[in-house]
Amino acid sequence: MSSTIPSSILVVGSGAFGLSTAWALCQRAEYKNTAITVVDRQPFPTPDGSSIDTSRIIRPDYAAAPYTRLATIAQKRWRTDFAPQHHHETGLAVVGGREQKYVSESLANVNAIGADRTEVLGSSEDIRRVCGLEGKDEWGSGSTGYVNWSSGWANAEGAMVWLREEVEKLNRVKFVEAGVRKLLIDHKSSTVSGVRLINGGELKADLTILAAGAWTASLIDLRGICKATGQAICYMPISTEEESVLSKQPTILNLSHGLFMIPPSNGLLKVARHGHGYVNPTTIPHPESDDPNERITVSLPFTHVDDPSQQVPYEGQKQCRDFLTSIHPSLATPSRPFTKSKICWYTDTRNGDFLISYHPKYKGLFVATGGSGHGFKFLPVIGDSIVECIEGRTPEDFKGRWEWPKERVPEEQWSGDGSRGGPVGMVLSEEMAKSRGKL
Fold first, then answer.
1. Which residues of 283-292 are buried (b: 16+ CB within 10 A; e: fewer)?
2. Cis peptide before 45, with omega less than 30 degrees from 0?
3. Are strands 87-88 and 152-154 parallel, antiparallel or unpaired?
4. Contact, 6 vs 205, CB < 8 A?
């Protein structure tokens, strides 16, 4: 990292990592003369961005202590000066079978900080009582866990729109709506000077920050480092009376299979799976090569923007439905189908750690991605952390976690962070083919 402040910074992506980085840069006096541009392929709020949704869990409940620490700081902001109108502190029940180590490790980390109100749930009866579950199927409720009454959820799209307005008020950032085709790489000097757009134009900058979420792997070679995985989300309309009861209950997250239900809002109930996800192997021109014939295959998002008729495959919808049947059978009757489903694309890393690092090969390129399905809750603080890393001041407890990995590890050998459940190795196109005639 050079000590000189870049005269221009280009942020690729206006999701949680990109927008919060722009916000953090705007608030620092040392960047007052830096031109800041944010480019995204879609109009804001990006309809298929992983940070745009009805709800996201806000929790410090992590098996890795550094994330508990940082999420606790973020929580304080959610409660006070960061989009507090979109934050709902209704609690989170982290549950599972007896085999779930993540549950006990997470509870220990939360209790060590001592800022949260927790209650151990030693049986499925305890879980049903605390979460207000009507069903008695232990597959749904889990048999052990705890509730953190200080956790909750946020209206994700509402918070992103709030942050975008805060950034726009500062009048410092130029927002560009355009698709990025590739990085401008000078291979002789191994320097990145900006991006080439799909429309043929170029955006140049001293420093390019890639924060394109699950699309980042289309712009640099992230094989063995990051991959895009699609997660199932299903929605169901709910009555005012049902919402008034369920909205006061904690979110239930069952780590044995990754299924969870967030309290309903605005007449909509959401059931989803934080699992191993679907991969979408896609062969593309090598993003770092000037040879159009050199190609690589990586998992990339395929969304309802690409195909407006896209739904979650039958397998995913059935699992969400089975979960709802087991915890709230009255909501899961045949006369009440899911009316909408979508695939949310995570940027997974081998162990759930973010990738916030200068590129080891190219000068002028910084990468901020790898949210691994748990980045959004850090929205109030992640931009500050990213800027600290840009300045060579990586937070002490994240050293060795956020850096560029020393080696690439084949995806089938990734250990994960212990928080994922459900089927492994699903390919989106195969699951879609199996779904024909069933949906």
1. eebebbeeee
2. yes
3. antiparallel
4. yes
Give the whole-angstrom CA distance, residue 105 versus residue 98.
13
C-beta of residue 402 within 8 angstroms of C-beta of residue 356: yes
Q: Three-state DSSP class for 169? A: helix
Q: Are strands 295-299 and 340-349 parallel, antiparallel or unpaired?
A: unpaired
| pTM, two decimal places | 0.97
Taking the C-alpha atoms of residue 401 and residue 389, their distance in angstroms, rounded to an integer, is 12
Tokens 């973010």 found at: 354
Report how far apart, in Å, the C-alpha atoms of 213 and of each of 295, 321, 431 are: 21, 28, 23
| Cα–Cα dist 328/134, whole Å | 5
Q: Are strands 207-210 and 226-237 parallel, antiparallel or unpaired?
A: unpaired
Q: What is the pLDDT of residues 401-415, one digit of tens each?
A: 999 999 999 999 999
* CA 144 – CA 264 distance, rounded (Å): 24
CB 91 within 8 A of CB 261: no
Is 388 buried (19+), middle (13-18) or exposed (0-12) by CB count in 10 A?
middle
Q: What is the number of helices (H) and of strands (E) in the chain?
A: 10, 24
Contacts 24+ apart (CB under 8 A), 118-126: 118/146, 118/147, 118/148, 118/149, 118/150, 119/146, 119/147, 119/149, 120/146, 121/93, 121/95, 121/145, 121/146, 121/147
Q: In this model, does residue 1 exceed pLDDT 70?
A: no
Rg (CA), the chain: 21
